[in-house]
Amino acid sequence: MFKNRSHSYPDKLYCRQSIFDEMQRRFTQIESAAEEPRVLCIVQDTTNAKTVNERLTLNLPASTTVSKLYEDVAQKAGYVNGTFCLVWASGINTAPLDQADERSLVLSGFEAGKRNFLQLTDKDGDQPQIASDESGTADSSGLDDSSQDRFIGPLPRDGTVGCSSDYSSPSYSYSSILNKSDTGYVGLVNQAMTCYLNSLLQTLFMTPEFRNTLFKWEFEESEEDPVTSIPYQLQRLFVLLQTSKKRAIETTDVTRSFGWDSSEAWQQHDVQELCRVMFDALEQKWKQTEQADLINQLYQGKLKDYVRCLECGYESWRIDTYLDIPLVIRPFGASQAFGSVEEALQAFIQPETLDGPNQYFCERCKKKCDARKGLRFLHFPYLLTLQLKRFDFDYTTMHRIKLNDRMTFPEELDMSPFIDVEDEKSPQTESCTDSGAENEGSCHSDQMSNDFSTDDAVDEGICLDNASSTERVLKPKSSLTFELFSVMVHSGSAAGGHYYACIKSFSDSQWYSFNDQHVSKITQDDIRKTYGGSSGSRGYYSSAFASSTNAYMLMYRLKEPSRNAKFLDVEDFPEHIKRLVHREKESEEQEKRQREIDRNTCKIKLFCMHPVKMMMMENKLEVHKDKTLREATEMAYKLMDVEGVVPLDCCRLVKYDEFHEYLERSYEGEEDMPMGLLLGGVKSSYMFDLLLEIRRPDQKFQAYKPGEVMVKVHVVDLKSETIAAPVSVRAYLNQSITEFKQLIAQATGLCAETMRVVLERCYNDLRLLYVPNKTLKAEGFFRSNKVFVESSDSTDHQATFTESLLWKLLDRHGNTIRLFVSLPEQSPGCLANRTSCPKASADSEDSFDGATGSQRPVEAILEESTEKLKNLSLQQTSSTSDSQKSSEHSDFELIDSPAQESEAPSQPPELENQFPSDERSDSDVNNDRSTSSVDSDILSSSHSSDTLCNADSGPLPLANGLDSHSITSSRRSKAHEGKKETWDTAEEDSGTDSEYDENGKSKAEAQYLYFKAELYSQEEGSGDGQKCLLVHVDKRITLAAFKQDLEPYVGVPSTQFKVFRVYANNQEFESVRLNETLSTFSDENKITIRLGRALKKGEYRVKVYQLLVNEPEPCKFLLDTVFAKGMTVRQSKEELLPQLKDQCKLELSIDRFRLRKKTWKNPGTVFLDYHVYEEDINISSNWEVFLEVLEEPERMKSMSQLAVLTRRWCPSQMKLEPFREVVLESSSVDELKEKLSELSGICLENLEFAKGRGTFPCDISVLEIHQDLDWNPKVSTLNVWPLYICDDGAVIFYRDNTEELMELSEDERNELMKKESSRLLKTGHRVSYSPRKEKALKIYLDGGPTKDPGQD
Fold first, then answer.
1. Continuous segment of H or E residues that includes residue 248
2. Which helix (DSSP H) or strand (DSSP E) does residue 30 occupy?
């Protein structure tokens, strides 16, 4: 024996040395592999429409060969290697990679460290062959662990699945769900957020007792619709999970039977809640069947809720049933969590002593006594469900949190220590009365009698006959041993996450991870990883928003061989299940055949210009790849609805490019060629389309050859200034311009010698083709092109192209749009008749001097200064304007403004011959801008201000004796100098623009832009007097010039009407930026003209709201008005007075109301009368302002003052007094307290205050205000933390700290809570915190929710 040992000793040393050498060699390989550069390959599968958006990603060593790349791609895509090709996605090299190439990826053109994009394509026009499935059955065992992809947990973000050398995209392709997992089990597809559903369904499927009983139930189609039958859809799903060869199957039929729509797939719910709701639904569906009591038989347990008097032993109790046991992870207020399920179970049944104020009234003692209250388990279900309550609520942060503390759970759980534990042996008297105690968690409350049935007497663990506790006999301990078989895991936080299930198969005792469509083997170590917990010490609720992976629901099965069932084999299925399996197999085969058809069907867009409808029709042509072009043409002929309209022989299919409207080629002589070859194989998408071309019977089809380009030729007639419809011509890129002109001459009949050809390469890019020998390619021709040709004897061709009439005509053509303009229903007539005053003269100017200037209407002041400035500017530029008009008269006919005629019509022109021409340029604008006064029906308000610019008066005296800022002297000097006309002091764009340029003349005169208008009538929806214009206008025209062109048709000056652009759904928005062009408009846009004064530069439309601080709704809209830059607050108040009287029936004195800043609903800075808009007060478009009526004269005189709104809280009366304003001279807290003390009579030492929270009026419940506000902050000034009161309008609550809080009974508190809830809800303030509204989980037994909108 010793000899043999001595001989074996060197052998062991040799073996150890060999192992060491082998390990060293492998480490060396790993180190070298780590140093080797890697090639990232991203492969797009273009062979199928359902996989074209998927990407396969492989990260391979640079030494990998091309042939190995093919193998890896085949494995990842699920295809047979050799049935597909790989090509570069860039398109530079379209030849496929050689599958037999043994060169490395780097030598084959791949770049290490970068992304290399490839496309997986058909081989020889055939779809790739899907790899066959040889995985076995769902309950197969004995699989080699090394061949399994071990996977547990949610899909990693980068897609890694335990392999560092290559990884795939986490999004699965359609082909990946066609092959069953190597485990033999089938996954479930996640619809969106249905992982919780998938986890529960897989657990129920892997429960033999539930699956077998479900299979025994037979569906009666005559009694119920199969679509809405929950048990039938579950039965179908389980059949597919056991027999399907797919990797994963859909759950949409099951959720449809729940009555859910697609939106439910985007709602994540709690898996325990789903379990309860689904079991309730099954119980309802199984009523009056053999399965009616299935849920109770498998999952229901019983417990006793008792209260026992400690003096006499009298016990009051009730029996409750439960489907799961909720176990607390960490008791409320505790710093340590329970370490195991056993500890949590012990705490669940731990009794509580009721003493002191919580004493129990004993029925026997007839007094309050100390008592013991608790729970006792009476019966455990066959399938025990434990819910670990990981979701809690943090009352500090008012957020839901997840507790990730570690809690262990055994693989075998002995429940005998937790059943009917007697804590004392005193005699007891049991009474079946409702103790009123509320059960914890999800236990049912089921009032039962004191006598138990005989079935209860033989339940596991306890005899429930009416014997004393000493006579109760427990079953052997082994009968209460439960075996863990399912762990439903939650990964994430309380805000959201992912569920998956770890389930042990009772067939082979192997653990598997069921993670949606992925099923993989796992080990016991993976189960232990779901205990939870993290390193480091943590305080209470420190893991509130942490994301972790841990067990949430556990399912155990009682270890009892006589009851433990096995799964039914396929041959043992009931007959109705066998028929169902047969139907599902036929359906799967049909789906497979359909997939095969789809793989061989070419699907391509088809177009046709319908000869009757005269519009381009679009459809999708689906044709088998073996069908010939002749057969495909006949299919397209019927598809495009031209059968019977034109003969079939007048139609043909041609290759077409929709984007460029280009006919690429025709297929002469290829009528019998298969479509698969003709289109380049079956593809998910094609880079071209097909067009069903139709000819007249007397025509012949033109041959379209590859390499030709399509040219649309427009013939231009300079005399009539018209451009004809296009004529299509096909040319070659290598043709010269001379040859191209000859080709156009043949098509149009024009003379080639005098022909001018202009190419429009892109929008407004016109290029004259004048080099005879230059090719079309060199000139920039592409697939589809547009050219304009002109051939005449005029001298226009001698002018420079950009100065020629041809260029101007084409430029006008390219920029002209057609607009539909709706005029006001009753046009008030020509602007000459709307003018009530002549232009202002020097004499009239003098009349405005003196103290009465401040009393003049602002509009009169503004209009007069405008006229003076315009007249002065026009005198300086008249010679230039006249010369420009004469030089351009040949191109654009001009008309005189109707306002300048001695007799103008009172209505817009009805016929074109009322004017010398319909066309007018922007040079012919109305220079008579005399609009010092207009009728009241034109103005939007009685005294709308353009701006305050009293041209010759001094500073305006204000009521408070202060002078306004001088805004007139600089403008007056500028006007007399003839410089830039403006009534603004700033250059920036204020939202509206001036209608005049820097030289003071109308901006419409700066360019000559096309405008043509003609009247037309609306056929529908037009009322009496409604007129419409069809306007052709150059979209480079400014809005100001466009409005001036419309003046003759509207009948009022452009300043007296507004332009509204009409969008979809007839939404209208006013266009106010006069300097902007119509470039954002397009053909067929609609415009509505409305009477009313339009804004000018420096003016802003303002919404005025009334501030009612003590009303339930403190913000009330009054009216819209106009404020101008440079206007003082007092002047705007003067303008508001008549408007308030006319529109709001408010008669106010100017000193008894104020204007103040409005921010949302919060009142802000009080505007003082001498403040100037845009100098002291920033103003913007659609500005909002508060108007506050004062009960006494204004107390705010200076910006150094601070106005706060105060409200007294009276705790003894539980009420808040009305708001009262306090004006402070400084930001001192002492001054605030003194003012509040004077106001309320509270002693200074007893006065406390707090700042209101939220939006005005800072509403808060009277039940919360006494404790929730930050009373008496330790600060000396108001403008520091935590108050930050730096502006007017802050809300301050104050109280007397000696005043006691009213004591309320429970009924009074509840009544007050209801009133406060109603009050706060009406004001839009939340009563309690609600972080997010969660949709309740419901299963509808009738197939869908009711349509009652009021039902929750």
1. strand 248-249
2. helix 2-35
Determine how β-strand 689-694 pairs with β-strand 601-609.
parallel
Catalytic residue among 195, 362, 830, 949: 195
Question: In angstroms, rounded to a whole number, what is the distance separating the alpha carbons of residues 1106 and 1116?
Answer: 5
Instruction: Residue count of the chain, please give it.
Output: 1352
- Cα(811)–Cα(1243) distance, rounded to whole angstroms? 83
Instruction: Give dist(CA 741, CA 890) in Å, integer.
Output: 29
Is pLDDT above 60 for 470? no
Q: Give CB contacts under 8 A, 24+ apart, made by 215-219.
A: 215/239, 215/568, 215/573, 215/574, 215/577, 216/290, 216/291, 216/574, 217/286, 217/289, 217/290, 217/291, 218/574, 218/576, 219/576
| CB-CB contact of 93 with 48 (8 Å) | no
pLDDT tens for 741-761 read 999 999 899 999 999 999 998
CA distance 1039 to 900: 22
943 assigned to active site? no
Q: How far apart are CA 746 and CA 739, in angstroms?
A: 11
Look at the block and give the residue holding tokens 């062109």: 1045
Is pLDDT larger for residue 1134 or for residue 851? 1134
> Residue 1293 in 3-state DSSP?
strand
Assign 900 to helix, strand or coil. helix
User: Would you state the structure tokens that stand for residue 1228, as one six-digit string?
Assistant: 């001192």
State how beta strands 1291-1296 and 1247-1251 pair.
Answer: antiparallel
**Catalytic entry in 269, 498, 714, 1171:** 498
pTM confidence score: 0.51
Joined tokens for residue 909: 């022109």
End-to-end Cα spacing for the chain? 85
Q: Distance between CA atoms of 205 and 253, rounded to whole angstroms?
A: 16
Torsion of CA 63, 67, 69, 74, to 10 degrees: -160
1068-1071 β-sheet, strand order: 1011-1016, 1028-1034, 816-822, 1085-1091, 1057-1062, 1068-1071
**Dist. CA 171–CA 159, nearest whole Å:** 8
Question: What b/e string do you get for 892-917 counting C-beta neighbours within 10 Å, with b at 16 or more?
Answer: beeeebbbeeeebbebbbeeeeeeee
Q: Which helix (H) or strand (E) holds 5?
A: helix 2-35
* 3-43 residue pLDDT tens: 444 444 444 444 555 655 666 555 555 444 446 788 888 89
| 813 has catalytic annotation | no
Taking the C-alpha atoms of residue 574 and residue 216, their distance in angstroms, rounded to an integer, is 7
Q: Where are the alpha helices (DSSP H) in 175-229?
A: 195-205, 208-216
CA distance 486 to 1101: 68
The structure tokens listed for 540 are 């209470």
Give the residue from 986, 985, 1006 showing the smallest Cα distance to 995.
Answer: 1006
User: For 925, what's the count of Cα atoms within 13 Å in the CB-facing half-sphere?
Assistant: 29
Backbone angles phi, psi at 1264, to 5 degrees: -115, -20
511 touches 527 (CB < 8 A): yes
Q: How far is CA 1136 from CA 529, 645, 1132, 1143, 1192, in A?
A: 74, 70, 6, 10, 20
Residues forming a β-bridge with 1038: 1077
The answer to whether the beta carbons of residues 199 and 514 sit under 8 Å apart is: yes
- Nearest alpha carbon to residue 823 among 922, 899, 902, 910: 910
Region 377-387: mean pLDDT is 94
